[in-house]
Structure formats: C-alpha cells, structure tokens
Amino acid sequence: MIRLDGAVACVTGGGRGIGRATAAALTARGAQVWIGDIDLAAARAAADEIGCHAALLDVADPDSFTQFLDLAGQSGPVEVLVNNAGIMRLSPFLELDLAGHHRELAINVGGVVNGMSLALPGMVSRGRGHIVNVASMAAKVTTPGVAVYCASKFAVAALSRAVRAELAGTGVTITTVMPAAVHTELTSGVNLNLQPTLEPDQVGQAIVDTVRHRRAEVTLPRWLAPMGVIEQGIPESALNAIKSRFVGSDPGRFEADSRRAYLDRLKR
C-alpha cells in the first residue's frame, strides 16, 4: 500500500470539478499534489486554495505531459497519477463536427494513453505506484447524444483492464473509476432528474480511497456495477425503449444558457 503522507500525486484536469476535489482530498491526506490543467489560471487558483502545486498541461500533447511529470518529479518520484482530464460534447453524432470528434478522443483516450505510457516505466522500475483512470458509467452503458464520449470511456475501461493484466506482479496497480453523472460544468445544462447523481467531493474521496484498496474497478454508486451486464444482456430494441425514458426522444439536447460557459471553454 502507498502511504499518501509525503507521496507525490499528480491529477490531470485538476482546475475544476472531480479533479479539483481529488486534489483537495489527496492534499488533506498529506500527499504532495500537482494539478495539471490546460487552463493554467484555474489550476493556479485551485492550487492556491487547496495548498498544492499547479502547472500547465495539455494531456493530448505527449511533450506537455512529459514536462508536467518532470516538474512534479522534482518533488520526488510520482507514486500516484489520476488521469481525470476529459471533455463531453452533447448532440447527435451527425450534428457534431469530425474535428471535434477527434479532439474528444485525443483528450479522453489519448490523454490516458499518454499519462500511462509516461508514468508507468518509472513506477514499474521502482516496483511501486498507482494509477487511477477516471472513466464514467458511460463505459458500461451507451447513451444516445454522447456517442463519442461513450466510446472514449469504453476505451479507457478496456485499456485499463488490459494493461492491469500486464502489470500483475509488478507492484503497480490501475483502478478504473466509473461514476454516474456528477454535478460539474461537464454536465451543465443537462437534465439529470431521472439519473443517479453525485457531487465532485464524493468522487474525489472514492478516487483517493483506491490508493488503499486498489480495486480493479469502482462504480459510483456501487449498485450500478451490474449495468454493463444488463447492457449486454437485454435486447437492443428493449434497451433503447428504456433509455428513451431517460434521454427523451431528442437525445443530446441541453439548456444552452446553462451550458454556455462550458462550451466557450471548449472552443479555446
């Protein structure tokens, strides 16, 4: 088990939401935390309030990720990496631009590939380390209106599972965390009335707890764990009828004014 007191921990996308809550929870347990975020101002503001470090990070750029880990490594070997950065674009698949699809995959999947590729060699050589890949219940249940987001989270879960098997016996572990909808900017403007929801602090605490128990996969809330089996076991026509009750007949729609700040950030 990794002792968090004094351990160097890196959190991507830590300027807001789940990442910020995770950084706060890690800091509270004594870790030396580095927040990486493409919005450096938000990262610095969060770090100042939490009492940790901040640095610029574009997770889709391997050079940027290397610089971030090298900077954090000046505090000591990176023992914990939380791959949290991600974006979610809402609207039917054909109404969204192709370049945006590729960008979403580059951040949500490519960012995890970059982080693992760069952090794991040092962890394996030391025989010590833990990576948390933040996916979503979208890794188990497909949802119309967020097709590429679902694809990216399925990919993160599968990647984590495969690499976890390769790392058996090395002393290095990977946990995939799959929360239900979380009240952050990522879900702003979305009608969540019929869905189980969480607060960022709940997810952050669950992420930090994985350093102790190192379970392979964590669903939040836990009672959603069988949803992947249900997704595969129910005929698709019946499943689509059920999903229409949650997403409506016009999938991917959102309240534009409530989501405007998030959409403006995605354009930067």
Q: Topology, pairings included?
A:
Blueprint: E1 8-12, H1 17-28, E2 32-37, H2 40-50, E3 53-56, H3 62-73, E4 78-83, H4 98-126, E5 129-134, H5 147-166, E6 172-179, E7 181-182, E8 197-198, H6 200-213, E9 217-220, H7 227-233, H8 236-247, H9 256-266
Parallel strand pairs: 1-2, 1-4, 2-3, 4-5, 5-6, 6-9, 7-8
Helix pairs in contact: 1-2, 1-6, 3-4, 4-5
Note down, in words, how this protein is organized.
There is one protein chain. This protein has helices at residues 17-28, 40-50, 62-73, 98-126, 147-166, 200-213, 227-233, 236-247, 256-266; strands at 8-12, 32-37, 53-56, 78-83, 129-134, 172-179, 181-182, 197-198, 217-220. The protein is of the alpha/beta class. Strands 3-2-1-4-5-6-9 form a seven-stranded parallel beta sheet, with helices on both faces. β2, α2 and β3 (53-56) form a beta-alpha-beta unit. α4 (98-126) packs parallel to α5. The protein is globular. The N and C termini lie far apart (40 Å). The mean pLDDT is 90.
Brief write-up:
By secondary structure, this protein is α/β, with parallel strands linked by helices. The protein has helices spanning 17-28, 40-50, 62-73, 98-126, 147-166, 200-213, 227-233, 236-247, 256-266, and strands spanning 8-12, 32-37, 53-56, 78-83, 129-134, 172-179, 181-182, 197-198, 217-220.
Question: Gyration radius, to the nearest Å?
Answer: 18 Å
Helix coverage percent? 40-55%
The tally of strands reads 9
Secondary-structure element order, N to C: EHEHEHEHEHEEEHEHHH
- What separation lies between the terminal Cα atoms? 40 Å
Strand order of the largest sheet: 3-2-1-4-5-6-9
How many individual helices? 9
Helix and strand content put the structural class at alpha/beta
Strand content: 15-25%
- Gross morphology: globular
Mean pLDDT: 90
pLDDT < 50 stretches:
none
Main sheet summary: 7 strands, parallel
